[in-house]
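Issue: ligand-bound run for acetoacetyl-coenzyme A - logging full I/O for the record.

Environment: standard queue, default settings, no custom constraints.

Inputs:
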Amino acid sequence: MSQKVALVTGGTGGLGTSICRSLADSGFRVVAGYNSGGNHDKAKAWQEEQRQAGYDILVSYGDVTNAESCAACVKAVEEMTGGTVDVLINNAGITRDGQFKKMSWEQWDEVMSANLDSMFHMTRTVINSMIDKGWGRVINISSVNAQKGQFGQCNYSAAKAGIHGFTKALAQEVARKGVTVNTVSPGYIKTPMVAKISEEIQAQICSTIPVGRFGTPEEIGRICNFLAEEGSSYITGADMSINGGLHMH
Ligand code: CAA
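Outputs:
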């Protein structure tokens, strides 16, 4: 049987790297979608780092806020792998934190585009080939802050909550076509995104996490891999929380 192809958007980032590695460990032909502000050398350097760590991961450029760029990214994946995308992990995302009373339209719009419009562009590009094949996995990375809200994140919480609505609707549309659609909602994970929060606030947040620590990217990679497995075909429209007990609902 030929290798299944997995495309991870934001694949070269904090969570993305672990998701890519976890899928590669399970035998998927993994492609890391990257933007890196168009810095292709950075992506090549990342790819080399993975190779040195024993991971053969392809890279494909794409701006998830732009439909044409997503189409080009997927076309490149198909050319490189000789197959269509079987597993799509919509992982690319950004923060532009700030209190709403001071938030600019740009802070709102950039977060909506990168975190929510991206779901439309990328998934729309690959969904028909999954349906035609009768097999597919769409895994959307949301956040605990979609479930509970977060001071300073009206934009991010709104976009990330929108993701789960999208998951539930699409899951119903493609359930009979062998395609599952799920959300993963990480809590605070040790990534560059969380490192941007001031140390004082990080300590405050950490003190509210029942498990007593931030999560690791590997813990998120593991759950994405689980959802991508053949045996997970009865899990669809779900929102998998992985937050150290920070929010239970
Ligand atoms: N609840 C209530 N009040 C709060 C508060 C909270 N959680 N946090 C701060 N405040 C209050 C302070 O007490 C202070 O009040 P006073 O002015 O009355 O003293 C005020 O807000 C501070 O306001 P400022 O505008 O001066 O604060 P700031 O601009 O320096 O910082 C902020 C605002 C950037 C939003 C900062 O609070 C912050 O970084 N918060 C954390 C946001 C966060 O958790 N982001 C997650 C990023 S990681 C991620 O998103 C990944 C994921 O999915 C989990």
